[in-house]
Design goal:
The structure is a homodimer of 193-residue chains.
Chain A lengths: L6 H23 L6 H8 L3 H7 L3 H13 L11 H16 L2 H13 L3 H28 L9 H17 L4 H5 L5 H5 L6
Chain lengths: 193, 193
């Protein structure tokens, strides 16, 4: 006799369809022009299904971002902090200058006038990665590769800021892709003294 | 006999009314909710008057920002580059965490999905100030206070990035106001070697 439909699996199928629909529509039209109606239609679900799982279009987009980034920008630890940050930031700038980056910029744009979404962005996308980065920097401090008198949380801000600054202020893709080359200059201010 | 109305002066009065209307409405409702219709009504002008002088709401907002910043964040030159950058960045973070900063964030948000406005932001708000900053850094290089082997244009990115990073990624007002204290740490990587 045929198995009963598995409600969990059906949910996962709808979730996947919704995430893919939002991503595809954002690539096609630009994030600002994507509506929840269009996502629902493309995904073959009703709007209430989307709103049962997410508070807003921005919330769906944050899940798309995390889902698609996956492990692509995890922090390596080869023992050389400059090399590791350079390769990790190279991966970040690769994402920023591609289709997923355009979607991510759209969401960050929305956050500028939506404080609730901005806090969700911090909690779900930024803070987990800041914690991983801090852990990698802590290891470098313990190895004697970085100074001990500045919190590693502050070092994260100084190291990652130029990437976001050039990207969000439209300095151009070439400038964004030039950020990994700045790591040695920035680290020069963070060396043991 | 009464003088003919001066069209230049009338234009300046309308311009002032339009800029003030957009600023006041943005403070009251938030930039995202401001419409050109509402600006026109508040300023007592027709929509065509606004569109004769500006291409979009964002373009009006950029003029409001430049107009209200005025000389508040001009670059001092006391001869001490760390002191001068610290006081200039203190002025910048004061603006960012106030009403004008909220409007500016709204426009930067809009720029994330509007490349034309983003280029206008760079040309009218950012680039003129980057040139002033570069000139101040060039003077510091000539004084032997900064290294000679890194373009001062790149130094600007490294020095100003944390301010925008904390501000646009909603780290909170206290973190933004903490940026001037980072200047010595950042400059440590930019000293003569």
């Amino acid at each position: 006799m045929p198995a009963q439909p598995n409600p969990e699996r059906r949910n996962e199928r709808s979730r996947r369809a919704i995430l893919d629909a939002l991503y595809d529509l954002a690539v096609e039209k630009g994030y600002a022009k994507v509506t929840i109606e269009a996502v629902a239609t493309r995904a073959g679900v009703g709007k209430p299904t989307i709103y049962r799982w997410w508070a807003s279009k921005g919330a769906v987009a944050l899940e798309v971002i995390n889902d698609r980034i996956g492990t692509a920008i995890d922090f390596p630890n080869t023992g050389d902090i400059v090399a590791d940050l350079t390769s990790q930031i190279t991966a970040v700038t690769g994402i920023m200058t591609g289709d997923l980056g355009r979607l991510y910029r759209g969401v960050i744009g929305e956050c500028q006038t939506d404080p609730k979404l901005a806090q969700e962005l911090r909690a779900t996308v930024l803070e987990p990665r800041i914690r991983f980065c801090t852990a990698r920097l802590d290891a470098a401090v313990a190895d004697g590769q970085l100074r001990t008198d500045l919190p590693t949380r502050t070092m994260v801000d100084v190291i990652y800021a130029p990437v976001y600054y050039r990207w969000l202020l439209s300095a151009g893709d070439a400038e964004v892709r030039g950020c990994p080359a700045l790591v040695p200059e920035i680290i020069a201010g963070l060396l043991p003294r």
